[in-house]
From TrEMBL:
It is a multi-pass membrane protein. The chain crosses the membrane at residues 33-52, 59-80. GO terms for molecular function: sodium:proton antiporter activity. It comes from the Bacteria. It is found in: Cell membrane. The lineage of its organism: Bacteria, Bacillati, Actinomycetota, Actinomycetes, Mycobacteriales. NCBIfam families: PRK07948.1. This is Monovalent cation/H+ antiporter complex subunit F. Keywords: Cell membrane, Membrane, Transmembrane, Transmembrane helix, Transport. GO terms for cellular component: plasma membrane. InterPro entries: MrpF/PhaF-like (IPR007208). Belongs to the CPA3 antiporters (TC 2.A.63) subunit F family. The keyword Membrane applies.
Length: 86
């Protein structure tokens, strides 16, 4: 079980590094928004993996709160997004 958790943690770190590049180099603001949403999803997966590793269920409300914040943030930014200059 520890090997699987270590492998999943390493894969989450690699995915976070790739998505951070997309946040910094995204050609449009919508690309950056999607990358930030994916980065938030990776953070939620990391917290869930930590909850499995530590066998502590008090982290679950934090994961739910992050999911709600990510959803509301994505919807509000997408609603009021201004078109990028091309």
């Amino acid at each position: 079980m520890t090997v699987i958790l270590a492998l999943s943690g390493a894969l989450l770190v690699v995915a976070a590094a790739l998505i951070t590049y997309r946040v910094l180099a995204g050609p449009t603001s919508l690309d950056r928004l999607i990358a930030l949403d994916a980065l938030l999803a990776i953070a939620m997966c990391g917290l869930a993996a930590w909850a499995v590793h530590s066998r502590d269920t008090t982290i679950v409300p934090a994961v739910v709160a992050l999911a709600l914040v990510g959803f509301i943030g994505s919807v509000s930014v997408a609603r009021f997004r201004v078109r990028d200059d091309q």
